[in-house]
Amino acid sequence: MTWKREENTYYVYRDNVLISNEANLCLSGNDLLIYEKPTQQTILCEDWANCGDGKIREAEVLFSPTASFWRREGDSFYFYHEGQLVERELESKRKKDDLEVYDKEYDKTYIFSGFANIEDNKLRAAVLKTGVDFR
Question: 118 to each of 31, 69, 79, 87, 111, how far by Cα in Å?
Fold first, then answer.
């Protein structure tokens, strides 16, 4: 899978064929995160903000069983679901090296594995916590 940026428009190619599917997208730092709804795939276009030269670049397909990702920046985090930054208030608490994040709107708790030891600002899959209440 490849991509290019021209002006503020992105183009994603699968097997050298332009795909034009319904998608959610948002910036994650300098990267563009795209959630392609029909395929339920999350695509990462690294350094999108600095690549407006129209050159074809490799895209990375990210995997998460929850279609959710997180990245740590300092002591805070960014949480993305289906290609969108989640901007509503979330509750969080540390559990050893992990961070548990509760989304009250959907009554779901996610685990950010290894949060305490990761400071590289890269996207990682959020795991859904099951069977145990957040509190």
Answer: 19, 14, 15, 22, 14
Global pTM reads 0.89
For the chain, give every domain's residue range. 2-62, 68-75+82-129
d(CA 110, CA 126): 6
Write the pLDDT tens digit of every residue in 6-24. 988 999 999 999 987 789 9
Q: What is the pLDDT of residues 25-53, one digit of tens each?
A: 999 999 999 999 999 999 999 999 999 99
